[in-house]
Design a protein that fits this description.
Blueprint: H1 2-15, H2 24-37, H3 45-49, H4 55-60, E1 75-76, E2 83-91, E3 94-101, E4 107-113, E5 121-127, E6 130-132, E7 134-138, E8 142-145, E9 157-162, H5 171-177, E10 196-202, E11 215-220, H6 253-262, E12 264-265, E13 271-272, H7 283-293, E14 296-297, E15 300-301, E16 306-310, H8 315-324, E17 328-333, E18 336-341, E19 349-352, E20 363-364, E21 376-383, E22 389-397, H9 399-405, E23 410-414, H10 421-435, E24 440-445, E25 457-462, E26 467-479, E27 486-492
Parallel strand pairs: 1-3, 19-25, 21-23
Antiparallel strand pairs: 2-11, 2-16, 3-4, 4-10, 5-6, 5-11, 7-8, 8-9, 9-10, 12-13, 14-15, 17-18, 20-24, 21-22, 24-27, 25-26, 26-27
Helix pairs in contact: 1-2, 6-7, 6-8
Length: 515
């Protein structure tokens, strides 16, 4: 509460008096200046200032990630950045070692580092353009790769996976290459804390036409903390923030955002992410958002996601993609971060024209410019059925809106953290509908509304504009301590825009890869 009071005081000084009130955009600039005093990193500013935009407009800001694998080619050597896997996604891996042995060097061994922190789970192998099931386990080489078994049952490929908790080096590699004069692999090569795979191939020209195999690894990310399963903070369960061994894996996008906002402790002890305290993320608000992601839609959670994170990149890049995966917005006030997923919350108050300050006429902006008006949308996302390449899921059009605008205007939506076609289609549809809610207002509310914050919703009945309990979300807010008036920017929202349209979910085509 003290942080909010100090922030309000600073804003009030910028207002000075109602007679010389600044535009809300200028007030928000003052808020950004105040945030620096609370040591919040600059890369979060974009999230704060985007609250007043539609979900599509938020995706227009900056350069979106391309859906699909984060790296185009398998890395080699020691220059690749450390990574972590959150949720379900696929990675190429980073080659840290290779060598060959046997007559004519027929057995080729690759060591591929898959992440920089322990705990991720290996799900599926994609090798040479097709999924492969795994067969019997060889004591030295690991699980047989079924697509590398020749006619007659001769085995030509194996994979062995280590999840990062290993305490010894791979015995087979040490036995084969421990004394190699050029590229030794010794008992000290444990790769502590790093998930990795050892892939062995017995060369056969019919199976390996391109030489070294191309591999992709479908993974489930590291365990993350879920406050809903922590009885010490009001949840139910044994998870604890200070005991990562109690955490579990999850695809819930809000859980993954929460993990980043609290801060990911790296092996060297530094923290990547928001480094927010528990009180900076109000638990009731964040749990409600997590639960919205888990709502059942036709037998599946409404929102799931996954992404490979590079620690050399700014956290805001990944938070933005995970927000898009669950139609989320975030806001900040006095160092406290709140999140809203999907449809706007129930109105906290109902107002009429008479409730608006009579000494301030306000401002209406019912129609945006053509540059931010869209009537069709194409969505691209990483698709497991397309070997995790970016795949256009569908183009959604609306003849009525197209007629209103006079031409088709297509938004190219990229969802880098959504590996589920049904979810990608629903997100595209709801974002397009939400983008057509054009009405915006700037108003001044009298002192009794001093409690209002961004992302709260009010129901406005207006004879002037013809509104009947129309929902408006507080997109921007500023407070005046001299008058206790509240300056708000409002944008129209409608929960109906977020109702899933199951008619969009046609049966998926049969995977060409045989997954």
């Amino acid at each position: 509460m003290m942080r909010r009071f100090l922030l309000v005081l600073l804003i009030s000084l910028s207002l000075a008096s109602p007679a010389r009130a600044e535009p809300i955009s200028a007030i928000i600039t003052a808020v950004g200046t105040a945030l620096k005093a609370f040591e919040f990193a600059k890369f979060f500013a974009q999230i704060v200032l985007s609250t007043g935009m539609s979900l599509l407009a938020q995706k227009l800001r900056g350069k979106p990630d391309e859906p699909g694998l984060q790296n185009r080619f398998k890395g080699r050597g020691g220059s690749e950045p450390e990574t972590i896997i959150l949720g379900r996604c696929a990675v190429l891996g980073h080659q840290v070692y290779h060598n060959s042995t046997g007559g004519n060097n027929r057995y080729y061994h690759e060591v591929l580092e898959l992440a920089g922190m322990p705990g991720a789970t290996f799900l599926k192998l994609i090798i040479d353009g097709e999924y492969s099931t795994l067969g019997d386990t060889d004591a030295d080489y690991g699980d047989e790769i079924d697509t590398k078994i020749t006619e007659g049952g001769v085995k030509r490929g194996w994979i062995k996976y280590f999840d990062g908790t290993q305490t010894t080096a791979d015995a087979m590699l040490v036995d084969r290459y421990g004394s190699d004069p050029d590229r030794p692999w010794t008992a000290n090569h444990i790769l502590t804390g790093k998930p990795y795979a050892v892939v062995t191939t017995d060369f056969d020209r019919k199976l390996f036409r391109r030489g070294v195999s191309e591999m992709r690894f479908e993974m489930m990310g590291v365990p993350v903390y879920d406050p809903r399963a922590d009885s010490s903070v009001g949840g139910s369960g044994t998870q604890r923030w200070d005991n990562p061994s109690t955490w579990v894996q999850s695809e819930n996008p809000v859980l993954l955002i929460y993990y980043i906002m609290r801060g990911i402790t790296l092996p060297d002890g530094s923290v990547w992410g928001g480094d927010c305290d528990f009180d900076d993320l109000p638990i009731d608000n964040w749990i409600a958002a997590m639960n919205k992601c888990d709502v059942n839609v036709d037998g599946r959670p409404k929102y799931r996601g996954g992404i490979e994170i590079k620690f050399t990149e700014a956290p805001e890049r990944y938070i933005t993609e995970l927000m898009a995966a669950c139609a989320a917005q975030m806001s900040e006030l006095g160092g406290v971060w709140r999140i809203q997923v999907d449809a706007p919350d129930t109105a906290v108050v109902s107002v009429t024209d008479d409730d608006m300050s009579v000494s301030h006429s306000g401002e209406a902006n019912p129609f945006p410019g053509l540059e931010s008006t869209f009537n069709a949308i194409t969505v691209t996302h990483p698709d497991p059925e397309a070997l995790w390449n970016g795949k256009p899921a569908i183009t959604i059009t609306n003849a009525g809106w197209e007629a209103e605008d006079g031409t088709r205007r297509v938004f190219d939506l990229k969802l880098a953290a959504v590996p589920y076609p049904e979810q990608a289609k629903q997100l595209a549809n709801l974002m397009l509908k939400e983008n057509r809610r054009f009405r915006r207002h700037k108003r001044v509310l009298p002192p009794e509304y001093f409690f209002m914050e961004t992302l709260q919703t009010l129901a406005w009945t207006s004879e002037t504009y013809g509104y009947e309990a129309t929902l408006f979300e507080v997109a921007e807010v500023a407070y005046d301590l001299f008058t206790f008036n509240t300056y708000v920017s409002l944008r129209e929202r409608d929960p109906a825009d977020f109702t899933p349209d199951l008619g969009l979910e046609l049966p998926s085509p049969t995977p060409a890869t045989g997954a």
